[in-house]
Amino acid sequence: LISLIWLLVFWAGLSSLWSHNYNLSVAYWFRIVEAIILILIILNLNLNFHKLSYALVISGVLQSLLSVEQFLTQQILANKYLGMALHLPLETTASVIEIGSQRWLRAYGSFSHPNILGGFLALSLVTAVYLYFNNSVGRRKIFNLSAVLIIFTGLFFSFSRSAWMATFFAGLPLLYFYGLKKYFRTTIKLLLYLGVLVLVLVFIYNSLIFTRLSFNQRLEIRSVDRRIESIVEAKEIIRDHWLSGVGLGNYTDY
User: Residue 146: its pLDDT value, please?
Assistant: First the structure.
């Protein structure tokens, strides 16, 4: 397995030789190397799974609180220590939900895009639900339940459709096979809390939700069209460069 991993690193680095943008390819190669080194360090440390889970959940809670603040204030302030850029609703480059002449800024957290925030919170939320089932005693029970509700709220304000779907398809089997069959009452309580939270959020922000799900506004139509165009372009690139590719991280540039 380790040999295959380093073979991937070698091939990815080699692709910079025929890439459309050499510097971009090398930058992406360093990201892969950093990620693999981090994975190897984690595997060799033999860290406790529950401690890792709590670290992920606490991070998710902090990101969610930041996300709620960003959405309610409708601004994302620049912060060099968190790697955050300034985003405002009227900026053309900002990720927003458009309803007529209104532009609602989606939450970024400390990430570069709301969809990345949504993916991180989806993973954090599923982990929080797992901990809720396994560590629901005393203060931990209160913390785990609070974490689930806070992270769910942060995930909502990302308005990431893909993250919502990922959470649903990952959480549904977890709730059914693990929750309902082993912890029926605990699961019912959790679903009731989440149900109330969903009703409140839908009641307040129903127009934003329907806009994200209906695909009948200008930006939503444009978003779907761009994805379709990307799929068509990807097929053409794969057909013409099926063996070597166009260089690591060079798809968009190419």
Answer: 95
How many H-runs (helices) and E-runs (strands) does the chain carry?
9, 2
How far apart, in whole angstroms, are the C-alpha atoms of residue 77 and residue 79? 6
Pair of tokens at residue 202: 């839908």
pLDDT, mean of residues 236-240: 92
The count of C-alpha atoms lying within 13 angstroms of the C-alpha of 227, restricted to the half-sphere facing its C-beta, is 7
Burial of 209 (0-12, 13-18, 19+ CB in 10 A): middle
Please state, rounded to an integer, the average pLDDT across all residues of the chain: 90
Which pLDDT band, with edges at 50, 70 and 90, does 136 fall under? Answer: low
DSSP notation for 160-198: -HHHHHHHHHHHHHIIIIIIIHH-HHHHHHHHHHHHHHH
Q: What is the DSSP letter of 241?
A: S
Distance CA 228, CA 218 (A): 16
Residues of the chain with pLDDT > 70: what percent? 98
Does residue 124 contact residue 56 with C-beta atoms inside 8 Å? yes
